[in-house]
Amino acid sequence: MSADEDEGSVEVALLPDGGVALRDGSNPEGQVHVYTAAEWDAFVKGVHAGEFDRP
């Protein structure tokens, strides 16, 4: 894919309670995924620990 092609995007909103909301930036009318602070923390820790790395 060239730099001029749309590669998609994810929009992130930090919520007042510490949670996070995510949506597809190319489809702002689409579904919003909302995660609690604890869920987001577990996800970030998993990323740092390599839990989602491909084998």
UniProtKB/TrEMBL annotation:
InterPro entries the record matches: DUF397
Superkingdom of this protein's organism: Bacteria
Pfam families xrefs: DUF397 (PF04149)
Residue ranges of every copy of the DUF397 domain listed in the record: 4-47
Name assigned to this protein: DUF397 domain-containing protein
